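Usage

Read records sequentially. Each one opens with the input sequence:
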Amino acid sequence: MNKLLTTVFATLCLGAAAFTAQAHGFKLGEITIGHPYARSTAPGQPNGGAFLSLENRGADDKLVSADAGPIASRTELHTMSMDGDVMRMRRVDDIAVGSGKAVALKPGGYHVMMFGLKAPLKEGDTFPLKLHFEKAGDVTVTVNVEGPAADHTKMPMGEMKSDGKPDMKSDMKPDMKH
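and closes with the structure output:
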């Protein structure tokens, strides 16, 4: 029985250590940025996405831009939805983070789109991502590059709503209006 309890305890400790090593967060005023990550990309893949969670314990605010300058030529805030079998991707001007609310930037929803990657995103690498909030200001977070199947949608998050105009895109090309 002691051997079984020791094995179970060791397994739980290793699992907790792995989760702790993977999970990371940042804080800017009353905004908490949880576990910024990107999926690894294949050689020659020109674009990639970054994902994270935002929790606001202060006044209403908005994420108005992101900059992955060291690794990409252009960075935009995007949303993605499915229209039947067609993926619709579009640029959004900002992502509202209301007072007392949480928003998830995750696959299949809001995300940071990085265009013109200077090199493939490799699992285990990290890169800086500068986030600019309308009221809270700027913070640079460290993005972990995880495997291609990485998906942290199981994290508890609040409601997500789009404020953008219906300028739908069916591909991942940058919005050239800017």
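Summary fields computed downstream for this record:
- The radius of gyration is 18 Å.
- Helices lie at 2-22.
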